[in-house]
Each structure stands twice: as structure tokens, then as C-alpha cells.
Design a protein that fits this description.
- The chain folds into four domains: 11-161, Rossmann fold (3-Layer(aba) Sandwich); 170-310, FHIPEP family, domain 1 (Glutaredoxin); 315-392, Helicase, Ruva Protein, domain 3; 406-522, Rossmann fold (3-Layer(aba) Sandwich), CATH 3.40.50.
- It contains 17 helices and 24 strands.
- The longest helix is centred in the middle third of the chain and has 22 residues, at 186-207.
- The chain is globular.
């Protein structure tokens, strides 16, 4: 009987700069260990010097091309027009997948024609997770089940990048039972390969930030169904799921009216009251039009809530320059006239971080740059520059705060409070701050808190409407204790917005507008 021949392994071409031959050998050994056939494509020079291909690459039986992204001498990358013409364009014409692999260097150095392609980041910070993700992509796209995925683990021996010793940017720690749920066959890929990327896509659409990959790890110092989110190795939130339960998007009282036993909880994403109910009652609440979350969805809520609040921490100068590199081919003159000619990269980063800290999306970078080009010549304080940028984003901000309607519900501030804050504004070479006595600050904060406490429960919280000069100061004052309360300036309002004042906040108390209702419910006396 003849022995059935084994199918040939999936072929890939690894393009790399000869200066990083040792790194290429290490990556190739990992790929070969997973069952892939790797062919080398070494290049001399690159970056400031035109790259030269050592041996012409034959793409006849190649399924994937993996360019290893690294610097070249003083240049940020070795890949140039010659590699694009001889390898990338040929692969693209033959429908060969090109999957960049980031081996060393800065993110903004990725060539423009490769930036729209997902790439693995093997620079050391999350080597094992990124390698597994790359191999999973190769297996899924090739349909080759022989490609083996490495076990999830704390790291890979032999990775000596200094980044490996840095704090992990995003870590999700889970208890033993919850880890078992996530690692149960299909479930692990459904969570890490589907739910997490979907969450990242949603956060990018909402905020305009590319978050780094997260690390999932089990720990014994959590309850069996507990979870903890760490940002740069600092715990931010700890939650605990319920066995055989789902989370319903309403409170215990609402569940009681439906005859459903429930346990009260808080939505980790927005602080709203929710309830744990038996998963057997999912159909009952679904008929009422309520959203429910499984155990995996609950983890996504916790993780997304933290990332939303900490988005500014994930935008540094390098990330800001990477965003500029994305829009520069489309708006080259605007970028050239704005950064660094009008504002420095550090000021741009400061402005973008201030926007993100208040949940303002930075995807409309063209509008942001236009505002900085207009005002950066006469104003150098990043705080005030941010206010001018916010004014230029008035359509976006109004749409966000009004939840897509044409009506904005607001608290008004008494002129006495506005004058107190305005007169206490102190401008220095390093920025602006409010110089008020602690008892004065407490009095203003208590007045705002009293107004908020008069609102009916579970309604949309009005915004504080004030002047541009003090808007950010008011927001910084209320953010620690009332993060859901936003401050908006008159300059940020669209001309066609319908403003509905709830009342006026003063140091002597809150004066509600006669007959006003919020969410259809009158404000308490």
C-alpha cells in the first residue's frame, strides 16, 4: 500500500535588512517551529541609501510575504521604493498577503503603503502574545491546520529587548475559574480574537486612539470569578462576575417589576445601575428590549471602561507623530505649516491628550490641525489652545453631548461663581491654574453637587454651560467626584442647538427653572 503524501507546508518569504540578520533568524526559527516553510529575502542598505536585494526573490509558490520592519543606520526604516516595486507590488498583483512584522524602531517609521495592514509587534513588550496572533492570522488566512499555535505563557526565552522589562501597558488578570471559562476550547478565540479586537475597533471609532495589545493572565490572589485591569502595572478596577448569571441593563427595581430575582450591581463602563440575573431568564429580559451581557461581555465592559477613562495615557509624542504621518500624504501643506512650524510636537500631544481626557474624539485631525494653525501663532498656552480646538469641533462635541439630538440640557453658573474662577486664573510659563482658597473651591463644588443631587434618579446629567476662559477649570474641579458631569463653553455650541437650562447654580443655592423636567420627571425642590 502506498503511503499518502503529506501536504507541503505553507510557504512564506521573510524580507529583512541584513543588519538585522540575527533577529530574522530568530523569527524564522519561531515560524518554522510552528510548521511553516520560511524563505529568506535579505536586503543591503535601505533608508537613507537605496536598498539592494541580495538574491532576487521568486514569489511563485509563496503564500505570505513578511517584511521585518527595522531601522537602517540613521534612517527610520530600510524599506523604500525599490522593495515596494520588486516585492510588494508583485505580491499585491498576485494576491499574496503581505503581513508586516515590527522588529525594531518607532511606530511612526512604518512606510505609508504598509500602515493600513495589521502587523505583529515583536519588539519585546508582548512577544509571545504577538507571535501567537501572527501565527493565528497565518493559519486562518491560509486554511492550513498544520500551523501550530504556541501555548499562552508569561514570555519567550531569548528575547532581550529592553522593552521586555517595561511595565505592561494593559493587563487583564482573572481568577482561576474565570480563566477556565476563557480557555475552554472555542471560547478563548471568541474572547481574545473576536471580542477584544471588536472592542478596540469601537474605541478607535469613539476616541481615535490605537490601544496596544493587552495581556491576559491568571492570578491566584483574585476570587475564582474575579478580574482586575492594570494599566502600566497599576490596578485600575477590580470586578467579580456571578456564576451562571448574566448582567441586565436595568436596576433591581425594574427586574422586580418583571418578576425576576436580581442582585444589584454597577456597570463598570459607565457607573449606571444594572443587575445580575440568572442566565435562564435571558429570553424574558430580551422580550423587554433590555441589553444583557454574558461573563465575557462583562469583562469587555470593565476593560473598555478603564481604557476610555485612561485614553490620554496611551497617547505620547511618538503616537501623535504616527497620527500625523497618516494624514500627511493627504494634507501635506497643512501638516507642514502646523507641526513643527506653528506648534511643536509636544504642544500637539498636550492638546490631543487634553481632548482625550474629556472624551473628545481626535479622529478629525484635519480640523484640529487647522485650529492649531490659526491660533498657534498668537496663543502658546496648551490649555487655551485646547479651548480653541474644542470650538472648532463644535459639531462633533454638540452631537456627542446631546446624544445625537438637537437639544442640550444644561446647568447655568451664576456670574459670581464665574467671576471668582476667572479672577483666580493664574497664567505661567508652564500653563494655567486656578488660585483659589480651599474653602472657596469647596463652596463652588458643593453648590454644583447640590444641583446634581436635585436631579431625578437615572436621568441624563445636564452639562455645565460657562465661558471659554473658565470651562476647563470647572471641568477639572468636578471631574474627581462627578466624572459624568461635563463642562461646555458657549463657543462650542452650534448656532442651531436648542439650549434647555435646568436652573442656575449659585453659592447661595440652586435655583431651578419653573416647571422644568428632566427625563420627563420634575426636579426636586
Amino acid at each position: 500500500m502506498s503511503k499518502r503524501s503529506q501536504p507541503a507546508p505553507t510557504q512564506l518569504l521573510l524580507s529583512f535588512s541584513s543588519a538585522y540578520g540575527e533577529l530574522a533568524q530568530r523569527v524564522a526559527s519561531e515560524l518554522r517551529a510552528a510548521g511553516l516553510s520560511v524563505r529568506f529575502d535579505a536586503w543591503e542598505g535601505g533608508g537613507g541609501v537605496p536598498a539592494i536585494q541580495r538574491v532576487a526573490a521568486d514569489l511563485g509558490d509563496i503564500r505570505f510575504v513578511l517584511p521585518l520592519l527595522t531601522p537602517s543606520g540613521a534612517a527610520p526604516t530600510w524599506i523604500g521604493d525599490e522593495w515596494k516595486r520588486m516585492v510588494y507590488d508583485v505580491a499585491h498583483a498576485r494576491h499574496i498577503d503581505v503581513l508586516p512584522v515590527h522588529g525594531d524602531g518607532d511606530l511612526h517609521a512604518v512606510p505609508g503603503f504598509l500602515r493600513d495592514r495589521s502587523f505583529a509587534d515583536l519588539r519585546g513588550r508582548d512577544y509571545r502574545f504577538e507571535l501567537r496572533r501572527l501565527l493565528h492570522t497565518l493559519r486562518e488566512r491560509s486554511g492550513d491546520p498544520a500551523i501550530e499555535l504556541p501555548d499562552d505563557g508569561p514570555g519567550v526565552d531569548g528575547v532581550h529587548s529592553p522593552l521586555a522589562a517595561m511595565a505592561r501597558p494593559i493587563v487583564l488578570e482573572v481568577g482561576g475559574e474565570l480563566a477556565g471559562e476563557l480557555q475552554d476550547g472555542r471560547t478563548v478565540s471568541a474572547f481574545t480574537d473576536e471580542a477584544i479586537p471588536f472592542m478596540y475597533d469601537g474605541l478607535f471609532y469613539e476616541l481615535g486612539v490605537h490601544f496596544p495589545e493587552f495581556e491576559l493572565r491568571q492570578t491566584d490572589d483574585l476570587p475564582p470569578l474575579g478580574a482586575r485591569v492594570l494599566i502600566n502595572d497599576v490596578p485600575e478596577i477590580q470586578v467579580e462576575a456571578r456564576r451562571d448569571s448574566i448582567l441586565a441593563n436595568d436596576d433591581v427595581e425594574a427586574m422586580a417589576k418583571l418578576g425576576i430575582p436580581a442582585e444589584g450591581a454597577v456597570n463598570p463602563a459607565n457607573g449606571a445601575p444594572v443587575a445580575w440575573i440568572s442566565k435562564d431568564r435571558m429570553a424574558d429580559v430580551a422580550r423587554q428590549g433590555l441589553t444583557t451581557w454574558t461573563m465575557h461581555g462583562f469583562l469587555i465592559l470593565a476593560l473598555s471602561g478603564v481604557l476610555r477613562r485612561k485614553a490620554a495615557d496611551f497617547l505620547g509624542v511618538d503616537e501623535a507623530l504616527a497620527l500625523l504621518a497618516l494624514v500627511e500624504p493627504v494634507f501635506p501643506y497643512l501638516v507642514a505649516e502646523t507641526v513643527p512650524k506653528t506648534v511643536s510636537p509636544f504642544v500637539l500631544t498636550d492638546v490631543l491628550r487634553r481632548l482625550l481626557a474629556e472624551g473628545v474624539c481626535i479622529r478629525n485631525l484635519r480640523r484640529i490641525l487647522m485650529a492649531l494653525a490659526d491660533w498657534g501663532r498668537v496663543e502658546h498656552d496648551p490649555l487655551l489652545l485646547t479651548e480653541y480646538v474644542r470650538a472648532s469641533l463644535q459639531r462633533q462635541i454638540c452631537h456627542q453631548l446631546s446624544r445625537g439630538t438637537n437639544q442640550l440640557i444644561v446647568f447655568l453658573l451664576d456670574p459670581e461663581i464665574e467671576a471668582l474662577v476667572r479672577d483666580a486664573m493664574t497664567h505661567t510659563a508652564t500653563g494655567s491654574y486656578v488660585r483659589l482658597a480651599p474653602e472657596r473651591l469647596r463652596a463652588i463644588l458643593q453648590a454644583i453637587q447640590e444641583a446634581k443631587n436635585r436631579l431625578p434618579p437615572n436621568v441624563q446629567v445636564p452639562q455645565v454651560l460657562t465661558t471659554m476662559e473658565i470651562r476647563s477649570s470647572i471641568r477639572r474641579l468636578v471631574a474627581p467626584s462627578m466624572p459624568e458631569l461635563h463642562a461646555v463653553s458657549y463657543q462650542e455650541l452650534r448656532h442651531d442647538m436648542e439650549i434647555q437650562p435646568v436652573g442656575r447654580i449659585s453659592l447661595s443655592g440652586f435655583s431651578r427653572r419653573p416647571g422644568i423636567k428632566v427625563g420627563g420627571v420634575p426636579i426636586r425642590e
